């Protein structure tokens, strides 16, 4: 009769031989076949806020909806009713309305006069600027599709810049330390 210890040794040896005989994986992990990463969309700054302004449910935001939405959003953000947003009020509001406390537009970009608070005028100016960039002046207003853009990887961005040498690229050749004087 074979003892349990002998059986355990044989089983362990079989596993060891099987593990050693399997092919080793080398190099970077393989990408999944047929995995197309093109076409992914990302939201533009304040897109969640603007989408919430769509009062009539037509997936478009017009001037009236933006005006009413900005007024309502500022009132919600102004927790203490002072008529100005403190840093803490803005961060708390941004977490809810923009999706994160550090979402764009950021505090510094809105506090134009540097008084460490955001007036309703500064608030409206910042968000109306974004709305204008997204097509508020278009006859149909801002469609939800205008609130997204194609995601571009760092590699794709580098490839695009290489194909466009006129994109502000400077000659990267090293200059002599003496400033070229010889």
Folded structure, characterized:
This protein has 182 residues and is mainly alpha-helical. Helix content is 43%, strand content 8%. The chain has a two-stranded antiparallel ribbon with strand order 1-6. Strands 2-5 form a two-stranded antiparallel ribbon. Helix 3 (63-77) packs antiparallel against helix 6. The termini are far apart. The model is unreliable at 171-175 (pLDDT under 50).
How far is the first residue's CA from the last residue's CA? 93 Å
Q: Specify the structural class.
A: mainly alpha
Shape: extended
> Helical segment tally?
7
Architecture of the domain at 41-150 in CATH?
Orthogonal Bundle
Strand content: 5-15%
Quickly describe the structure:
This protein has helices at 4-21, 47-52, 63-77, 87-97, 107-110, 120-133, 154-163; strands at residues 41-43, 60-61, 84-85, 118-119, 142-143, 148-150. It has 182 residues and is mainly α.
List keywords for this structure.
43% helix; mainly alpha; 6 strands; 7 helices; two-stranded antiparallel ribbon; 182 residues
């Amino acid at each position: 009769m074979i003892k349990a210890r002998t059986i355990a040794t044989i089983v362990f040896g079989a596993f060891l031989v099987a593990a050693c005989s399997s092919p080793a994986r080398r190099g970077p992990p393989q990408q999944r076949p047929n995995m197309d990463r093109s076409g992914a969309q990302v939201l533009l700054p304040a897109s969640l806020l603007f989408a919430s302004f769509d009062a009539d449910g037509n997936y478009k935001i017009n001037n009236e909806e933006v005006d009413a939405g900005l007024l309502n959003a500022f009132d919600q953000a102004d927790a203490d009713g002072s008529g100005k947003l403190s840093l803490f009020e803005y961060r708390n509001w941004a977490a809810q309305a923009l999706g994160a406390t550090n979402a764009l537009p950021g505090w510094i970009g809105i506090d134009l006069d540097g008084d460490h608070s955001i007036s309703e005028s500064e608030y409206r100016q910042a968000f109306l600027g974004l709305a204008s960039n997204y097509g508020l002046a278009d006859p149909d207003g801002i469609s939800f599709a205008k609130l997204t853009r194609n995601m571009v990887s760092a590699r794709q961005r580098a490839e695009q810049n290489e194909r466009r040498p006129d994109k502000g690229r400077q000659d990267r050749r090293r200059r002599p330390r003496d400033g070229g004087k010889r």
